[in-house]
């Protein structure tokens, strides 16, 4: 019984130590707090930032959806909300880690902001 208690205690300590120092991905709130003009969108719970400055070759793949709302209000920021892209802008996957927004025939890449 004592051995089971020690094993359980060690397991709990391991879980706590792993989760306490785990980085968290940026949120719309944290990004917009630093830069109110940031060009971001949210997809599948991740924040993506405009990556037009990067020189990455990609191929457009399947349509993921469309921007539902343009807002700079971070509370309630949801999937397919964006700060610069207008409602109705189509979002596509690529053959890379990028997603793209298609605006007037131009493809704008967005890169997920992931910590760690």
Task: Provide an overview of this structure.
- It is globular, with a radius of gyration of 19 Å.
- It has one domain (24-112).
- It has helices at residues 2-20, 28-34; strands at residues 40-43, 46-50, 60-66, 69-70, 81-82, 90-94, 99-103, 106-112.
- With 116 residues, the chain is of the alpha+beta class.
- The longest helix is centred in the N-terminal third of the chain and has 19 residues, at 2-20.
- The strands form 2 sheets. A 6-stranded antiparallel sheet has the order 1-2-8-7-6-3, with no helix packed on it. A two-stranded parallel sheet has the order 4-5.
- It contains 2 helices and 8 strands; from the N terminus they run ααββββββββ.
- It starts with a helix and ends with a strand.
The global form is: globular
How far from one another are the termini? 39 Å
Q: Kindly report the average pLDDT value.
A: 86
Instruction: Work out the count of structural domains.
Output: 1
Organism: Metasolibacillus meyeri
Signal peptide: 1-22
Keywords: Signal
Protein name: Lipoprotein
């Amino acid at each position: 019984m004592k051995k089971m208690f020690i094993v359980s205690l060690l397991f709990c300590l391991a879980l706590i130590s792993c989760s306490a120092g785990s980085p968290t991905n940026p949120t719309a709130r944290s990004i917009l707090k630093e830069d109110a003009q940031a060009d971001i969108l949210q997809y599948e719970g991740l924040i993506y930032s405009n990556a037009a400055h990067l020189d990455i070759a990609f191929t457009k793949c399947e349509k993921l959806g469309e921007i539902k709302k343009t807002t700079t209000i971070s509370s309630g920021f949801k999937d397919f909300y964006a700060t610069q892209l207008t409602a109705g802008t189509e979002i596509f996957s690529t053959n890379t880690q990028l997603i793209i927004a298609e605006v007037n025939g131009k493809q704008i890449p967005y890169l997920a902001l992931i910590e760690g």
